Known about the structure:
There is one protein chain. The protein contains 11 helices and 8 strands. By secondary structure, the chain is α/β, with parallel strands linked by helices. It has 2 domains: about 10-60; about 75-225, 3-Layer(aba) Sandwich (Rossmann fold), CATH 3.40.50. The strands form 2 sheets. It has a 5-stranded parallel sheet, sandwiched between helices. It is globular, with a radius of gyration of 19 Å. The relative contact order is 0.20. The model is unreliable at about 235-260 (pLDDT under 50).
Amino acid sequence: MRGPHPKDRLCFRPQAMRVLSEVAVDLRYLLGRGYSQAASIKLVADHVQLLDRQRKLLFRAVLPPDLAIRIRGARVEASALRGSPLWIDGFNVLITIETALAGGPLLEGDDGFFRDIAAEHGGYRPNEHTEPAVAGIMEALRGLGVARATFLFDRPVSNSGRIAGRIRAALEEAGIGGDAQVVDSPDHEIAKGCAGSDGVVATSDSILLARVPKAFDLARHVAARRAPGAWILRLGAGAEPEGPAPAPLTTDPGSAPGSDPRPC
């Protein structure tokens, strides 16, 4: 699901985000002292009875402080891409942009990169937001002036060959040098491809970001232009969602008769 989940209006309303921001402080403390992510999330989430979507937000957003600092240090501005090769984590970037276009919530991680919450695995199906997302990516690549754009898609994921073919056609139509490949491990190929080169990586996968010297948040760049009112969730002091929630989600359920006062 790239659009909003039916429970998102409850799970991520302002009251819940304040609680989640407090929980995130405890989680960062544990992660910074070497405790496992799974055990730490279970401990802090069970304490306030968080639901699955809220736990996924913590899993995707909160990083060990030293890792977050390291990844932030690898981030580059758009100007750094001109004349440089760009390695693109295909499904990661595409699905994040589709989520923004569909009105689903995006989160800003501790490392400053935008992510979707669902983190779909194993299956991908193009939808009505795929073509606008592809168009937005091509527009961005032209504007950024990259020397070459290489998209890598996971072979085990359904429709990977189909979407790689669409990207190759879009690159040709836009007059952008590059390719779209289907490989067994995009992370491995991307890390290998940019090693010892001036290449930049476009992804929000924290595991991959920890392995590369330079990274750019292409999904954030495109979403800012194609979905300026995107619903952005942040975990921090006084964190509130940025941008309006999708139309059905604009009413704060905390004010509704009979609403549950818990975080979600």
